[in-house]
Design a protein that fits this description.
- There is one protein chain.
- By secondary structure, this protein is mainly beta.
- Helix content is 6%, strand content 46%.
- The strands form three sheets. Strands 15, 16, 17, 18, 19, 20, 21, 22, 23, 24, 25 and 26 form a twelve-stranded antiparallel beta sheet that branches. Strands 1, 3, 6, 7, 8, 9, 12, 13 and 14 form a nine-stranded mixed beta sheet that branches. Strands 2-4-5-11-10 form a five-stranded antiparallel beta sheet.
- The longest helix has 20 residues.
């Protein structure tokens, strides 16, 4: 293994130097200034308030993304943007030549994606790799999530939820939707001039048509890299909001006393871009059940998606991924924390640094099912987990990151450290790498540091892509 390390270190160094001298001299982008409203518009799905026409930023230059990239849309779309100290506002007027064929379902949140809809991406850190998503269908049904694009890997997660206000109305010309997004509901840098990225997308499903502002080009390698720039200048309310959710459950079996349990979930916005979460004795019985999986001849554990609210805040910070392997060498899997007695978490972004830290005490870890040879008793000690993740922006669309995980139980431990990076240069070229070391102690036996390494270099364009990948994991 030692003889193989130096060539890969040399390759990383050479490519990093190549990145520095190529591809990052980007032209200045036009920034659209969002006007401040003199008063708050009513969110009712009806554009009868003259505020939208007189004071809002008006956007009409929508183009097709599909079926024909860059073509004139079959239906006209007009968007209006504005803000006040409390909210970011958006109204979209969607003309339709056949309004009776508009699809608008009265359904649950995050379930109207087969309808006509309007989607807004807001990249509040202007990093072109991560954006908040806000959907609304013609009658105001909401959807939200987070889009992540890193190292050529694109993912949309609807597990993230926040508070925002919408309404929509069908009319003889088509439909209108209005959105009020409280600044308290999202994270963003606390700057006097806030420059964000934005996309506005309209879906016409009966025609298979997506209409976007600005234009999206398939050959550019990513969507968020092509976002328009908007600027909000002036004071807005930051997200120092406090949420407290008490929990009380009880259980009674026949012939036994009632067994009551209490707990609490707490969320506090330390700033507009940093959030603290705490939970004590959480109850996850309201979470939907996992889909069944079949385990046949596998020597590794099954993977289940995280659904528990405490672990979902800032989950994109802890994710790994690549173009060819969505997980990479994924060293962070919070479902290993099975039954937390308590947990604390910091997530957010400060300047160029994206930070995530989780500490939790698991009162029923996997090891509690194992039998120890001396006496055959079960290991019943709690397990303490600590997970740290940090990424720093390099240039405009790249990063270098570090992660460390530690699990301690009755003098035994498992510790894993990782250094990783993802670089984009010359619009369509990507390079990713990850170097991992793991060390484990169980009772009196202790391993040395076991290495693993992952890297890939690939090219992607509108019509084709290719790449090379290397992965090595210690036995």
């Amino acid at each position: 293994m030692k003889r193989n390390k130096s060539p890969y270190i040399l390759i990383i160094s050479m490519i990093s130097m190549l990145i520095i001298f190529t591809g990052f001299m980007l032209s200045d982008e036009k920034v659209l200034k969002i006007p401040k409203f003199s008063r708050a518009p009513k969110i009712d799905g009806v554009l009868d308030n003259p505020l939208w026409e007189k004071e809002a930023l008006k956007i009409e230059n929508f183009v097709q993304f599909q079926p024909k990239e860059g073509a004139i849309p079959s239906e006209k779309t007009i968007a209006y943007l504005g803000y006040d100290e409390k909210n970011f506002y958006c109204a979209v007027k969607c003309f339709d030549s056949e309004p009776k064929k508009i699809r608008a379902s009265l359904t649950n949140r995050d379930s109207a994606f087969n309808d006509d809809w309007i989607l807004i991406f807001l990249d509040t850190f202007n990093e072109k790799r991560r954006a908040f998503e806000f959907f609304v269908n013609p009658i105001g049904i909401q959807g939200d999530g987070i889009r992540t694009e890193e190292g050529g890997n694109e993912s949309d997660s609807q597990t993230w939820d926040t508070v925002f206000y919408t309404d929509g109305k069908l009319n003889e010309e088509g439909y209108v939707v209005e959105i009020a997004l409280p600044f308290k509901s999202i994270r963003f840098p606390n700057l006097q001039k806030k420059v964000w990225g934005i996309f506005i997308i309209r879906n016409i499903p009966r025609k298979g048509e997506l209409i976007t502002f600005p234009i999206i080009k398939r050959g550019m390698g990513g969507v968020l890299t092509q976002e328009a720039q908007i600027m909000i200048e002036g004071y807005v309310e930051r997200g120092k909001n406090l949420e407290v959710m008490p929990i009380f459950t009880s259980l009674k079996n026949e012939g036994e006393r009632i067994d009551p349990e209490a707990g609490v979930n707490l969320k506090y916005g330390l700033s507009s871009d940093l959030t603290f979460d705490f939970t004590f004795n959480p109850d996850f019985s309201h979470i939907e059940a996992d889909a069944p999986q079949i385990d046949i001849n596998q020597r590794f554990a099954l993977y289940y998606p995280e659904k528990r609210p405490f672990f979902l805040e800032g989950t994109e910070i802890f994710q790994y991924g690549s173009q060819w392997d969505p997980q990479g060498i994924n060293i962070i899997y919070t479902r290993r924390i099975i039954d937390p007695r308590w947990g604390g978490k910091f997530t957010g972004k400060v300047g160029r640094f994206t930070l995530g830290y989780i500490s939790a005490l698991d009162q029923n870890p996997t090891e509690s099912l194992w039998e120890i040879s001396n006496g055959g008793k079960n290991l019943s000690e709690d397990a303490l987990f600590n997970i740290f993740r940090m990424k720093t922006d390099v240039f405009k669309e790249s990063y270098v990151g570090f992660a460390f995980t530690d699990k301690e139980i009755d003098g035994s431990f498992n510790r894993v450290g990782s250094i990783d990076g993802k670089f984009k240069f010359s619009k369509n070229f990507y390079f990713s790498f990850q170097a991992v070391g793991a060390k484990t102690k169980y009772q009196d036996e202790e391993t040395g540091w076991a290495p693993a390494f992952y890297s890939e270099f690939f090219y992607t364009s509108k019509h084709w892509g290719s790449g090379i990948e290397y992965q090595s994991i210690h036995p």
